[in-house]
Amino acid sequence: MENRLFTFAGLINHNHDFIIAFYIALTALIALLFAKLATRRLEVVPGGMQNIAEIFISGILFFAKDAIGEKLARKYIPLTATIALIVFISNIIGIIPGFESPSSSWSFTLVLALIVFFYYHFEGIREHGFVHYFGHFMGPVKWLAPLMFPVEIISHLSRIISLSFRLFGNVKGDDIFLLVMLMLAPWVAPLPAFAILTFMAFLQAFIFMILTYVYLAGALLIDEEQH
User: Fold this and answer.
1) Per-residue pLDDT, 89
2) What's phi and psi for 12, nearest 5 deg?
3) Taking the alpha carbons of 193, 199, 205, 211 in that order, is the dihedral positive or negative?
4) How many alpha carbons lie under 13 Å from residue 180 in its C-beta half-sphere?
5) Domain count, the chain
6) Which tens digits make up the pLDDT trace of 111-124?
7) pLDDT in tens, 145-173
8) How many alpha carbons fall within 13 Å on the CB side of residue 28?
9) Residue 50 — left, alpha, or beta (φ > 0 → left; ψ -120 to 50 → alpha)?
């Protein structure tokens, strides 16, 4: 059996699928608790959790408006903010001794990627209609359509692998890096490592969020792209 680090969930069941599912549930509970605390008592002058939540949302909108425009950025903030929050929490808990990041499991990152993949296609079809939406896959030149269409299909399918493997690979690499640091110098070396891994947790959540907006923009702003 593959040797793994100690986790608190492993005290309940040693099955790794159970451990990942346990920390996925924990991630969801933390996200719900954060949302509940942030919206429990809304004030004109925010403080505490509300202030953190508003900074979080404002930061997403600040970057997203350049990719998709402010109106659409606000429209899809429930999806993108939820994804960013879930990804960040799932990344950050893996840094805490005794916990394991759900993002280090490809099955978790694959599900997130599939949610984004099907959702932006659904929004594109709903906005433009089935024929017009998939018609833009054929490119602006009709005689190149037989070549462009399969290329576009492969390109879109590759986004599933890109989204899921980018997050999985980086978090898995971070876990290995932290393990090596803990083995080499368990008291001193991990201190800068924790700072680096915290930054990476932010970065991976940001990348996943902004790519979701980019893919939504590609599905919704077809006419702008063609011109």
Assistant:
1) 95
2) -85, -45
3) negative
4) 7
5) 1
6) 999 999 999 999 99
7) 788 889 999 999 999 998 998 888 888 77
8) 7
9) alpha
Can you give the residue range of the structural domain that contains 135? 8-226
Q: What is the mean pLDDT of the chain?
A: 86
Render pLDDT for 166-207 as a digit per residue (tens, 0 to 9).
888 888 777 776 667 666 666 555 667 778 888 888 999 999
Residue 101, token pair as written in the block = 């990041």
Asked if the structure places residue 88 within a domain, the reply is: yes
Residue 113 included in any domain: yes
Written as one string, the DSSP assignment of 172-200 is HHHHHHHHHHHHH-SSSTHHHHHHHHHHH
| Residue 2 belongs to some domain of the structure | no
Record the tokens describing residue 169, joined without a space.
């690979």
Write the single-letter amino acid at 87: V
Joined together, the tokens standing for residue 154 give 């492969």
Collapsing DSSP to helix, strand or coil, 141 comes out as: coil
Residue 11: DSSP 8-state: G
Q: How far apart are CA 166 and CA 155, in angstroms?
A: 16
Domain assignment present for residue 218? The answer is yes
Q: Mind giving me the DSSP string for 23-80?
A: HHHHHHHHHHHHHHHHHSS--SS--HHHHHHHHHHHHHHHHHHHHH-HHHHHHTHHHH
